[in-house]
């Protein structure tokens, strides 16, 4: 192999391409070992009911504590995990850890929280998905309606009929389903009606500009009424300012998530937030 690489073809690689390839190979090797070396952690970001101000759940977000690179964010390794198939083991670890943690917060008396977990495309089409989620729920003792799976539009639209079938299998387990980054893909309204889902999560790009750009404000408003007409909950992601929050409250958005309330934090910190009973300030715009 080294011989092949060192041959004539080698000159076609630019130094930069070569460096990238080497980085990729080394990250891939590290990724293979990361699970058993326990280098993954989940951070949790609160989801807050906009009407009551209370924490109703959290999104679990994976981080990789790499021995030399430090904290690596998911956009740097989830794609690679997908390509290599490692997403199977990593995804199962995420689901198990998130469900076990949620159950332990429930046992600690912090109320009944729902945990949202992101699924990637390859995980979604994995043959034993429904069975493996059923097993994880049984092992951890978490009631299925406290688990919410986040799926992207493009993942669902890739093969609509297959997606509907998988969603129906998951629905039979009584887990909740959410469309993440809603508005960035191109799902047709006709399909949206056929997907057995529970939540639309408005992409943060619309939330970010909704107080500056009237087009984005209209999009947010339309997604909220669309969701409510379809009897779905709406979560706004990436809420960073009081102004955005007020606007979302007026538009009767159900749940907010974003830096304005809290960054994603390690489990211990999240436990602390729950113990303190942190709530969203309800002053102004309430009535
Ligand atoms: P996502 O599911 O849309 O997650 C929301 C992302 O927005 C997170 O980035 C979060 O840290 C960030 N965020 C939250 N609030 C704010 C805010 O107020 N402002 C801004 N600018 N950003 C905010 P993160 O953790 O880097 O995750 C990026 C993406 O990686 C996620 O996007 C999700 O698609 C994927 N991901 C994360 N964890 C997992 C996982 O366990 N499995 C899979 N398959 N994908 C994951
Ligand atoms: Mg998500
Ligand atoms: Mg999202
Ligand atoms: Mg997003």
Describe the model.
The chain is an alpha/beta fold. 47% of the residues lie in helices and 19% in strands. The chain has an 8-stranded mixed barrel, surrounded by 4 helices. A hairpin with a 3-residue loop joins strand 2 and strand 3. The chain binds ligand C2E and magnesium ion (3 copies). The site of ligand C2E has 22 residues, from strand 2 and strand 6. This is EAL domain-containing protein.
Which descriptors apply to this entry?
287 residues; alpha/beta; eight-stranded mixed β-barrel; 13 helices; 19% strand; globular; binds ligand C2E; binds magnesium ion
Could you give the topology of this structure?
Elements: H1 2-6, H2 15-34, E1 40-49, E2 55-66, E3 70-72, H3 78-84, H4 87-107, E4 114-118, H5 121-124, H6 129-140, E5 147-152, H7 153-157, H8 160-173, E6 176-182, H9 189-194, E7 199-202, H10 204-209, H11 214-229, E8 233-236, H12 242-250, E9 255-256, E10 265-266, H13 267-276
Helix pairs in contact: 4-6
The structure holds ligand C2E and magnesium ion (3 copies).
With strands numbered from the N-terminus, the spatial order across the biggest sheet is: 1-2-4-5-6-7-8-9
- Strand content is 15-25%
- In terms of quaternary structure, what is this? single chain
**Content-based structural category:** alpha/beta
Q: What's the total helix number?
A: 13
Please give the share of residues in helix. Answer: 40-55%
- Poorly predicted residue ranges: none
Radius of gyration: 21 Å
Helices and strands, in order, run as: HHEEEHHEHHEHHEHEHHEHEEH
Bound molecules: ligand C2E, magnesium ion
Taken from the alpha-carbon principal axes, the silhouette is: globular
Distance between the termini: 70 Å
Mean pLDDT level: 92
Largest sheet: 8 strands, mixed, barrel
Number of strands: 10
